[in-house]
Amino acid sequence: MTPEIAARVCKICGQEKPFDQLIPDKNAKYGRMQRCKPCHAARQRKRWHDPVFREHDLARRKEWHDKHYRFRRYGITREQYEQMFEAQGHKCRLCGSEKAGAGRDKQWCIDHCHKTNRVRGILCHNCNTALGYYERLVGTMGEAALLRYIQPSGVIVK
Questions:
Q1: What are phi and psi of 151, to 5 degrees?
Q2: pLDDT tens across 52-101, in order?
Q3: How far apart are CA 74 and CA 113, in angstroms?
Q4: What pairs with residue 40 in β-bridges?
Q5: Over the chain, what HEC string results?
C-alpha cells in the first residue's frame, strides 16, 4: 500500500509541486512522474524541435501503426498481409503497379468491403482511391447508369 503524498519535488525545476501538478505515469512509484507539467511540456517542445528526435519519434510511431493499427482494423495479421501480397506478386491487385502510389505515407492500401469488412486485396493508392469513388458512384446512381455514362456514345465534344 502506498502512502498518501500531497506534493513532490520536480526533478527539473527543483520546486515542490502539488501531486495533481505532476505528470501521471501508471508505472511510477506513486502513479506520477517526478516532473511537473510545465517542465514536462517545455522538455517535450524542445525535444520535438530536435530533428534527430523528431525523425526517430515519427519512425517509431509509423512502425507501431504498421504493426498494430492497420492489421487490427481489418482483422488480419502481418503474416496474412505478407502472404496476400506475396500471392499478388508484390504488385497492386488491380493495375499491377509495383509502386504504392502517392498516398500519405506511400504505403500499400488494404482494400476491403465496407459492408462485410472482408479484405479483398492489396492496392496501390491510386487504385484504392478510384475504387472508393467508383463504389460511391455506383451506390448513388447505379452500376448500369454509370457504365452507360462512361461508355463511348459516338458524340465528340471539342
A1: -80, 145
A2: 888 888 888 888 877 777 788 888 888 898 999 999 999 999 899 898 87
A3: 10
A4: none
A5: CCCCCCEEECCCCCCEEEHHHEEECCCCCCCEEEEEHHHHHHHHHHHHCCHHHHHHHHHHHHHHHHHHHHHHHHCCCHHHHHHHHHHCCCCCCCCCCCCCCCCCCCCCEEEECCCCCCEEEEECHHHHHHHHHHHHHHHHHCHHHHHHHHCCCCCCCC
Alpha carbons 98 and 90: distance in angstroms, whole number: 7
The C-alpha cell of 113 is what? 468491403
Give the cell for residue 138.
455506383
Write out the three cell numbers for 89.
Answer: 506478386
pLDDT confidence of 154, banded at 50, 70, 90? Answer: low
What distance in Å separates the CA atoms of residue 131 and residue 128, rounded to the nearest whole number?
5
| Torsion (CA) 77, 81, 82, 86 in degrees, nearest 10 | 150
**55, HSE (Cβ side, Cα atoms, 13 Å):** 3
Residues 6+ apart with CB under 8 A from 64: none
Burial environment of residue 75 by CB neighbours within 10 A (0 to 12, 13 to 18, 19 or more): exposed
